[in-house]
Amino acid sequence: MERAILLLSVVSLGVSSQPITDGQRLFSIAVSRVQHLHLLAQRLFSDFESSLQTEEQRQLNKIFLPDICNSDYIISPIDKHETQRSSVLKLLSISYRLVESWEFPSRSLSGGSAPRNQISPKLSELKTGILLLIKQANQDGTELFPDSSALQLAPYGNYYQSLGADESLRRTYELLACFKKDMHKVETFLTVAKCRLSPEANCTL
């Protein structure tokens, strides 16, 4: 009886499910990777906050503004409504720029623990996956990065200067907070773009 029920379930699944395309598979991998990075960013930021004294945390919260991240030069949707109106190609392009903007500063997040050492290689894998999705979506060959030279600049370049203890603490706080913020953005954009591949899905944020 149990075998019959299992067989019926498998048959029903085969009838009702749509075949998974290469694009959907690539999107699933990309979303999974950015979710991992976002969770890692949240964990690192939480661990750093926990290591602070109460007064240090109060002062950093007072100084830091979430809209001063270096990646803010990358124009992106400002709210969920604009995100939902954006094309898949636009969401992919913005995600690519955001990930690329962290290639250089992510080096300073590495070292000291196994999770930290995952950041740079995971970003590289995610960037490669998003580029493949862009090539699939960009069938007409539109130039997406006409100002690509700007992407070669090193965000957070002054992070590597010799700093006093208080300034170094502030920069670390800023770096981790911005990394968390940007990985959340990329996760949102890729999730919405992936949802667009399924016409029956509800992509409401």
List keywords for this structure.
mainly alpha; elongated; 205 residues; 0% strand; 8 helices
Outline the structure in words:
By secondary structure, the chain is mostly helical. α2 (22-51) packs antiparallel against α8 (165-195). The chain has helices at residues 2-16, 22-51, 54-63, 80-85, 88-100, 114-117, 119-137, 165-195. The chain is 62% helix and 0% strand. Residues 1-17, 146-155 and 157-164 have low confidence and may be disordered. The protein is built from 8 helices and no strands. The chain starts with a helix and ends in a 10-residue tail after the last helix.
Q: Count up the helices.
A: 8
Structural class: mainly alpha
Sheet of most strands: none
Order of helices and strands: HHHHHHHH
Question: What is the CA–CA distance across the termini?
Answer: 42 Å
In oligomeric terms, what are we looking at? single chain
Form type: elongated
What is this structure's SSE topology?
Layout: H1 2-16, H2 22-51, H3 54-63, H4 80-85, H5 88-100, H6 114-117, H7 119-137, H8 165-195
Helix pairs in contact: 2-7, 2-8, 5-7, 5-8
In short:
By secondary structure, the chain is mainly α. The chain is 62% helix and 0% strand.
